[in-house]
Structures are given as structure tokens and as C-alpha cells.
Design brief:
Protein name: FFAR2 protein
Order of helices and strands: HH
Organism: Crypturellus undulatus
Keywords: Membrane, Transmembrane, Transmembrane helix
Structural class: mainly alpha
Main location: membrane
Radius of gyration: 15 Å
Oligomer: single chain
Largest sheet: none
GO molecular function, one term: G protein-coupled receptor activity
């Protein structure tokens, strides 16, 4: 169980790093558009982050209970 949770968090951190890299690329490639849209996307990013963590923790809890 501990190994599964460990690897789940490793994969999630990799996904978050990839998402951050895409956001930074868009900020460099399209600076004006990215700056004007940044405030609107913060809620979407928070929801996506929460959803990923809930899925990971839910999956770990199912494995732990079984």
C-alpha cells in the first residue's frame, strides 16, 4: 500500500510539472494573451489539481480497503 501511494504521488508530481511547463511556455510564447487569461484560469487549475489529488487518494483508499 505504501509503495502504491508513493508511486501515485510520483506520477502526480510529474503531471503537475508538465502542466507547469506548458503554462510557462504559453507565458513566453504568448505573453499578452497569457497575462490577460491568467486570472480566469486560476479556478480551473485549482479544480484540476483538486480532482487529480482526489482521484489519487480515492484509488489508494480502495486498494488499502481491499
Amino acid at each position: 500500500v505504501a509503495n502504491f501511494c508513493f508511486f501515485s504521488s510520483v506520477y502526480l508530481s510529474g503531471f503537475f510539472l508538465a502542466a507547469l511547463s506548458v503554462e510557462r511556455y504559453l507565458g513566453v510564447a504568448f505573453p499578452l494573451r497569457s497575462k490577460s487569461r491568467r486570472r480566469r484560469r486560476l479556478g480551473v487549475y485549482a479544480a484540476a489539481s483538486s480532482a487529480l489529488w482526489l482521484v489519487a487518494m480515492g484509488h489508494c483508499s480502495v486498494v488499502f480497503a481491499a
